[in-house]
C-alpha cells in the first residue's frame, strides 16, 4: 500500500457540539477571513465556504470551495475558563479515549501499521508506544488479513485488541478475516468465543487522495452479520464511541474520516461514553428530517444555515450507528416531520443510505408524506482532479435543493 | 528400532525406492506434466543448514538416531504412552469411518472431510499438549478435536446438527470449537485459521510479558495442508511469528493433494519445510505416517515454543486414504500411490512396533479396539437421541452483547422483544 500523506498542517479550527442553534445573521454573510496555520489556535473559521485545509502552505486559502466543514460562530471567542472541560482536536480525542481505556484495562492493546514508533499516520496513537511499550502498541508488517486475523485470535483468547487500518480501504485485504472470523465466529462456535475487537481507521473521500484511498467501506461491511459499525464525527462522539467500542463485547468497526481529524471541540473532563446503538440529535426541527453521518454532517449543517435563512426548519440527525440503525430516534423524527432526506458519502448503489431507505420504508411508511430522498456519492471511482472529486460527493447546494424539493 | 517403522521398499513406477535412513517419500511421476521440476528426494545425508540465521532444516531420521543413541533403552515410548497413542489413533480412525457411514445414511450433510490415514500427525502432536495449549485446525478437524479432548458425543452431535453439539449445531463439520479444550476452530477457508493461531500465540506472549503471568508458556499448534502453503496468510504469519518469536508450531499436513490438485502441480518448490528458514525459523520434514517420528519432532518443536525460542515449521508427509471430502469421487489419484501409503498405515505400523517390542499384547490392543467401537457407537446413539435446535436458538449467539441488534422503533432494545427469544423476529 502506498504511504499516504497525513492531515498535518493548517487546521481549520472549528467547534461543534451536539445541540447547535444557528444564528441566522451569522458568518454566512461576513467577509472571508484568513485562518490560523497552527494546531491549537482557537478561533473559528468564519466564511461562507469554510475550508479544512490540509496543506500547511495554505495553498487553497484563496479558493472558495463550498465543500465545507461546519462552522460555529462565536462560542470559540468565549473564554475557555468559563466552561469546564478541555479543548482538543478529534484525533486527540480518539487518542485520549484509547489511552484511558488502555490505562483502565491491561488487556487492551493496539495493532496496526505504524501505530507504534510512528505514532499513527493520523497521530491517533501518538505517544502510546512510549507509554505502554512495543507489545501493547504493536507495529505490524504490511499484512492486513493476517494481522487482523491475529487480532481476532488474540480477542478469542482473552485480549481486547484495537486494530487500526491505516486507511479503511486497506481493510479490503482483511475482508476474509472480518467477514468470516470477526463477524461469524461467535455464532459458529455456538457462543463459546467472544471477539471484543475494535477495528478502526479513516476512510471517506479526502483531498485528492485518488480512488483507492477514498473508499467508503461501511457499505461493503454492512451485510456482515455479527458486527456493529459506528461512525464518529465530532471530538465528543469520537472519544465516546472509541471508549464504548473498546468496552463492548461485540466486534465493532469504528469509521473515522480523513478530513475530520483536526476538528476542535471542548469535551468534558469526566469519563463518558457514547452509546454505540444510538443516533445523535444535531439540530431539532419541524419540516424535514435529514439523516447523515461522518463528514456529510458538516455539509448538512452548512446547508442548514442556508435553509434556515430561507425559512425552513430542518431536523438534523447524525445516525452515528451505521449498523444497527437507531430506529427509535429516526422513527420519532419521521413521525414528527413526515419527510426524510438522507445525505451520505457512500455510493448510490448498496450504500448505507440504501439500507436506511429500506429500513425507514419498512417501519415508518405510514408516516411519510413524500418519498424518501437519498443523496449519495456518485457511483464513480473518486477521481484525482479536484473539480471532479468535488462533484462526486454531495455538496451543500444539492442538499438545499433537495430539501426545497421535498418540502414543496 | 526405528527401522521397524521405515517405509516398505517399493519398486513400481513412479515411486523411487526408499532407504531406511531417508524418511522421504517420492519423486515426481515420469510422465510430462506442467508443474514443479524440483525433485522431492531427500538423501540420507540431509542435515544441512539453509539459513544464515537461525533456521535449520533437518531430516528427522537424524533426530531419531540421536535420541535412540542417547537413551538407555532403545525404545522411544513407554507402554502407557504407546497404548495412549494407539488408542487415540484408533479412535480417530473409527470415528471417521463412522462419519462416512452416517453421511451415507443421511444423518449428516454438507461437506465432510475425513482424516483417515493422517492420524499419526494429530496424535503425535496433540497428545503432547496441555489443556491450556491451543489447537487451530481446518475443515478436516474432527480428529484434531478428538485428540484435544473434545468428547466424541459432542463432535458427533455437532455433525448431526443437534443442539448438544460442541457448537450447538451451529458450526458443523468444518467448524469444531471448544473453549474448554482450547480448540480454536475449525475453519472452512484454508489459511484463515493460521492468523487466528498466531493471535493465540500472541496472547500467550502478551500474558507473560504484559500481564506478568510469568508461568504462561502456552503453545499454539496450527494445522493446515499443502494447498494452504501457497496462500498469502501462511507466509504472512510465518513472518510475524518468527519476527516476534511467538510460541507457535506450524504443522503442515502435506498429503500431496488439494482436492484434485497435486502439490507438485501447484507449487514451484514443493519442499515446504524449506520455507521455514526463509523466514528465520527451523523447517523440519518428518514422515507423517510414523507416529513415533512425528512425536519426536513435535516434542522438540513444542519445547522450543515453550521455552520462548520461537516458532517452528514442521512438514509432515502424510496421506489421506479417502477423498478430499465425502463428495469427492477421488478419481485423479493413482491407485499405486494409494496402495503405497495404505501399506504404511500408521495404526498398523504402531501396532507392529508395540507388539514387536513387547510393549503390548495382541489382546490388549484388541481390547482397545473394542472399547473405541463402543465409545463411537455410544456417540452415535447420543447424537441420534439429542434434540434438534429450537427455533429460539436462531438469534441467540449472533452477538455476545445482544444490544448489538439495536434499538427498535418503540425505543426498547430489540433483544428485549419476546420474538427475539422465540427466534421469530426479523433481523
TrEMBL record, chain A:
<dbReference type="InterPro" id="IPR033248">
    <property type="entry name" value="Transketolase_C"/>
</dbReference>
<keyword id="KW-0934">Plastid</keyword>
<comment type="function">
    <text>The pyruvate dehydrogenase complex catalyzes the overall conversion of pyruvate to acetyl-CoA and CO(2). It contains multiple copies of three enzymatic components: pyruvate dehydrogenase (E1), dihydrolipoamide acetyltransferase (E2) and lipoamide dehydrogenase (E3).</text>
</comment>
<keyword id="KW-0560">Oxidoreductase</keyword>
<dbReference type="InterPro" id="IPR005475">
    <property type="entry name" value="Transketolase-like_Pyr-bd"/>
</dbReference>
<dbReference type="GO" id="GO:0009507">
    <property type="term" value="C:chloroplast"/>
</dbReference>
<keyword id="KW-0809">Transit peptide</keyword>
<dbReference type="GO" id="GO:0046872">
    <property type="term" value="F:metal ion binding"/>
</dbReference>
<protein>
    <recommendedName>
        <fullName>pyruvate dehydrogenase (acetyl-transferring)</fullName>
        <ecNumber>1.2.4.1</ecNumber>
    </recommendedName>
</protein>
<dbReference type="Pfam" id="PF02779">
    <property type="entry name" value="Transket_pyr"/>
</dbReference>
<keyword id="KW-0670">Pyruvate</keyword>
<keyword id="KW-0630">Potassium</keyword>
<feature type="domain" description="Transketolase-like pyrimidine-binding">
    <location>
        <begin position="88"/>
        <end position="263"/>
    </location>
</feature>
<dbReference type="InterPro" id="IPR009014">
    <property type="entry name" value="Transketo_C/PFOR_II"/>
</dbReference>
<keyword id="KW-0786">Thiamine pyrophosphate</keyword>
<dbReference type="InterPro" id="IPR029061">
    <property type="entry name" value="THDP-binding"/>
</dbReference>
<dbReference type="GO" id="GO:0004739">
    <property type="term" value="F:pyruvate dehydrogenase (acetyl-transferring) activity"/>
</dbReference>
<comment type="subunit">
    <text>Tetramer of 2 alpha and 2 beta subunits.</text>
</comment>
<keyword id="KW-0150">Chloroplast</keyword>
<keyword id="KW-0479">Metal-binding</keyword>
<dbReference type="Pfam" id="PF02780">
    <property type="entry name" value="Transketolase_C"/>
</dbReference>
TrEMBL record, chain B:
<dbReference type="GO" id="GO:0004739">
    <property type="term" value="F:pyruvate dehydrogenase (acetyl-transferring) activity"/>
</dbReference>
<keyword id="KW-0786">Thiamine pyrophosphate</keyword>
<feature type="domain" description="Dehydrogenase E1 component">
    <location>
        <begin position="88"/>
        <end position="390"/>
    </location>
</feature>
<keyword id="KW-0560">Oxidoreductase</keyword>
<dbReference type="InterPro" id="IPR001017">
    <property type="entry name" value="DH_E1"/>
</dbReference>
<dbReference type="InterPro" id="IPR050642">
    <property type="entry name" value="PDH_E1_Alpha_Subunit"/>
</dbReference>
<dbReference type="Pfam" id="PF00676">
    <property type="entry name" value="E1_dh"/>
</dbReference>
<keyword id="KW-0670">Pyruvate</keyword>
<comment type="subunit">
    <text>Tetramer of 2 alpha and 2 beta subunits.</text>
</comment>
<comment type="function">
    <text>The pyruvate dehydrogenase complex catalyzes the overall conversion of pyruvate to acetyl-CoA and CO(2). It contains multiple copies of three enzymatic components: pyruvate dehydrogenase (E1), dihydrolipoamide acetyltransferase (E2) and lipoamide dehydrogenase (E3).</text>
</comment>
<dbReference type="InterPro" id="IPR017597">
    <property type="entry name" value="Pyrv_DH_E1_asu_subgrp-y"/>
</dbReference>
<protein>
    <recommendedName>
        <fullName>Pyruvate dehydrogenase E1 component subunit alpha</fullName>
        <ecNumber>1.2.4.1</ecNumber>
    </recommendedName>
</protein>
<dbReference type="InterPro" id="IPR029061">
    <property type="entry name" value="THDP-binding"/>
</dbReference>
<dbReference type="GO" id="GO:0006086">
    <property type="term" value="P:pyruvate decarboxylation to acetyl-CoA"/>
</dbReference>
